[in-house]
Write a structure and sequence with these properties.
The complex is a heterodimer of chains A (395) and B (156). Chain A is of the alpha/beta class and 395 residues long. Chain A has 14 helices and eleven strands. Chain A starts with a strand and ends with a strand. With 156 residues, chain B is mostly beta strands. The chains are: A alpha/beta (395), B mainly beta (156).
């Protein structure tokens, strides 16, 4: 797959700031433009990641950000794929660049998120799976995280201390990250003594919801060279795959899986297929990866990703964690930013923020959380309703 | 099962919390959809996905799904879920939720467990059966839903 260049990245710090998502996205966009040394008026395409929690301006995020920056006539698109929205927005921008429709694009997503459980749209909505799961089962997002964590325990011998260790590791990574919301360093005892939310997961195993904004300026390789950047961090692969039928692993927001009675599931499950696609596009494999940013909606889900991205065999993630492989200083640090545990989730910004962090890592600009010598990085996340998301970057 | 109505008051009417998803009379079953001529089942029928091997527009058959299965995983919701969920008790008591694989249909279905079952009572692979039970009540109605009930009497 032909590559595109990442010329600039920017983020508004995550937190609860009480302002409009437009402010966060605009701040992130301005930082990315400045980082890239690209004039806003030269941007030919704005790819916005949609927020569904901020009314109409959020549904037309691309246009909203373009107007806030000062309408410059650029073409726009807005994408929604739940937590995967940022990767989708990046893939739309890549398509525009590789088709020759534009040379340089801005990708931006931001959110203002209410405290507590994410909830479905209001009203009587029996035709909406996202409504049914709350109405009939009480299946909040942490319920799904708990189901998957329980399987790690019963099938692979994971312990609550293993899950807590993910939080402890990531909190140590985040201590000096100026963009993280939570920078306290936690101990195992803090996590295992926090209240149970969805058995076996506790409050400190589960990510919060946050405000935040992230942006990237991306361009063709030719544009980057002409711009005086011959060796940029590049996007070498993007995965936005959906599952294949029958998908027999229960996941958000469904209350039932497909049936495997008449057709065998694919040998590689949905979440494994997310990484498969991005590795194939980039022409590299898990053994080449130096650093990863994965979606730790819960501590236990980070462990699932180790296996789904091929860092180890199924059932061996706890060993990788216990051996320190995935901590900064280890062979394959995961979530050097601190991950969702340190940021909290700002849905449309999150997949972009993952790529921002890897860009700083590959440039060697990540300061105290730097993964030494990182050349290849991978992100992974997943949006509900079957949206895969992974981006592979390299230098 | 549901609590008794107070003496002297007319009995509450039992209605499904959402129409058409399960039986209300006779043996408890979920009502699913099936691709004609293929072993492809969906639940709920009205929100079924497609079977890519079934070409063209497919009208799903209505089928009663089997009412026993094995626990695929389980968890709890220790805090009150947001609306439209209505808690059965005030104050809220944690609910236990199981994902159950139906042996015949080879599909996993989520549901609450009956009152009194905690995560400590469950294990992956345990046999459970489907029952129709009270989700919540108001002054006139009991709103009914499917729940999972362990077949062994291990729970306290």
């Amino acid at each position: 797959m032909e590559e595109i260049a990442i010329l600039g990245v920017g983020m508004h710090p995550w937190g609860k700031w009480g302002r409009s998502f437009v402010d966060y996205g605009t701040a992130a966009a301005n930082e990315a433009l400045e980082d890239a040394g690209v004039d806003w008026n030269d941007i030919g395409f704005v790819s916005g990641a949609i927020t569904v929690r901020c009314g109409y301006p959020g549904y037309v995020a691309g246009s909203t950000f373009a107007r806030a920056l000062g309408f410059n006539g650029a073409q726009v698109a807005s994408s929604y794929a739940a937590c995967a929205s940022g990767a989708t927005a990046l893939s739309v921008a890549r398509g525009q660049i590789l088709s020759g429709a534009t040379d340089v694009a801005l990708v931006v997503g931001a959110d203002t998120t209410p405290k507590g459980f994410l909830a479905p749209n209001e009203g009587d909505r029996p035709d909406d799976m996202d409504w049914l799961r709350f109405k009939l089962v009480g299946a909040t997002n942490p319920v799904y995280f708990g189901l998957h964590a329980r399987r790690r325990m019963d099938l692979y011998g994971a312990t609550s201390e293993d899950f807590a260790q993910v939080k402890v590791k990531n909190s140590r990574h985040s201590v000096h990250n100026p963009r993280a919301r939570f920078t306290k360093e936690y101990e195992i005892s803090d996590v295992v003594n926090s209240p149970v939310v969805s058995d076996p997961l506790r409050l400190l195993d589960i990510c919060a919801t946050s405000d935040g904004g992230a942006a990237m300026v991306v361009s063709s390789m030719e544009y980057a060279r002409a711009h005086g950047v011959p060796d940029p961090v590049r996007v070498a692969g993007i995965s936005t795959v959906t599952p294949t039928f029958p998908d027999t692993v229960i996941d958000l927001p469904y209350i039932a899986t497909d049936s495997a009675a008449g057709a065998a599931p694919a040998s590689r499950g949905f979440k494994t297929s997310i990484g498969d696609r991005v590795y194939a596009e980039a022409g590299v494999g898990p053994e080449d990866v130096d650093v990863a940013e994965v979606y730790d909606l819960s501590s236990a889900l980070e462990l699932d990703w180790y296996e789904q991205l091929g860092f180890c065999a199924e059932g061996e993630a706890e060993k990788l964690l216990r051996d320190g492989v995935t901590a900064i200083g280890g062979r394959l640090p995961v979530n050097p930013s601190g991950g969702l545990g340190a940021f909290g989730e700002a849905v449309p910004a999150q997949a972009i923020a993952q790529v921002c962090e890897l860009t700083w890592q590959l440039r060697g600009h990540a300061e105290t959380r730097q993964v030494e010598g990182a050349r290849i990085g991978i992100t992974a996340n997943q949006g509900l309703f079957g949206h895969g998301s992974s981006v592979l970057v390299r230098r | 099962m549901s609590r008794d109505n107070s003496p002297g008051k007319p009995p509450k009417t039992r209605v499904p919390a959402v129409e058409g998803l399960h039986t209300m009379e006779g043996e408890p079953h979920l009502i699913g959809g099936k691709v004609p001529g293929r072993e492809a089942y969906f639940f709920p029928k009205h929100l079924a996905g497609g079977d890519p091997a079934a070409s063209g527009a497919v009208e799903l058959e209505e089928v009663l799904l089997s009412r026993v299965g094995r626990v695929w995983s389980y968890t709890s919701s220790n805090y009150t879920p947001p609306p439209p969920f209505v808690a059965a008790t005030d104050p809220y008591e944690p609910i236990t939720i199981a994902a159950v694989e139906l042996e015949k249909e080879k599909m996993v279905i989520l549901g609450q467990c009956v009152a009194g079952v905690t995560p400590d009572d469950l294990s992956i692979g345990a046999d459970v059966e489907l029952v129709i039970d009270t989700l919540c009540e108001d002054d006139e109605h009991e709103y009914m839903v499917w729940k999972w009930k362990p077949l062994e009497t291990a729970q306290s």
